[in-house]
């Protein structure tokens, strides 16, 4: 029964804005056990770590519309417009926040990627050595190219 409540609670944090599933800053702060103010400061300090599509700030119109449809607690009503994070942005938050929850989540994500075979040491080294991350693609790695061609 607790699983249902948790799922329902998590689903209330996910919104569809600009055609993307996102979580707002106050929801992400709650997930990572930090204050919203702390999360926002960390994001602003590390803005260059976020891909353009992984993070955006809601417009006043978007925020007004969302508030008219959903009920938010008082702590979720801030004078500043909320930031929205897609799944990539949520993962990056685990890298820049210093809470125990965020650190554990970051380690868990890395393990999941490795276990899924998506992050092989050779591919990571190849990408770093060839600076493929600058072009935004790791598909230059020989083993990744081979696995893509096989599929």
Write up this protein.
The chain is α+β, with helices and mostly antiparallel strands and 151 residues long. It folds into two domains: 1-105, Mlu1-box Binding Protein, DNA-binding Domain (Roll); 113-151, no CATH class. The chain is 56% helix and 10% strand. It is built from nine helices and four strands. A four-stranded antiparallel beta sheet has the order 1-2-4-3. Strand 1 (14-17) and strand 2 (20-24) form a beta hairpin. Helix 2 crosses helix 3. The chain starts with a helix and ends with a helix.
Topology (SSEs and partners):
Layout: H1 2-11, E1 14-17, E2 20-24, H2 25-31, H3 36-45, E3 55-57, H4 60-69, E4 83-85, H5 87-96, H6 100-115, H7 121-129, H8 132-135, H9 142-150
Antiparallel strand pairs: 1-2, 2-4, 3-4
Helix pairs in contact: 2-3, 5-6
Number of domains: 2
Per CATH, which architecture of the largest domain?
Roll
Structural class: alpha+beta
Any idea what the radius of gyration is?
18 Å
The portion of residues forming beta strands comes to: 5-15%
